[in-house]
Amino acid sequence: GQNIDQPTEMTATEGAIVQINCTYQTSGFNGLFWYQQHAGEAPTFLSYNVLDGLEEKGRFSSFLSRSKGYSYLLLKELQMKDSASYLCAVGNTDKLIFGTGTRLQVFP
Amino acid sequence: DTAVSQTPKYLVTQMGNDKSIKCEQNLGHDTMYWYKQDSKKFLKIMFSYNNKELIINETVPNRFSPKSPDKAHLNLHINSLELGDSAVYFCASSTTSGSLSYEQYFGPGTRLTVT
Question: Contacts of residue B40 in chain A, CB cutoff 8 Å?
Answer without folding.
Answer: 100
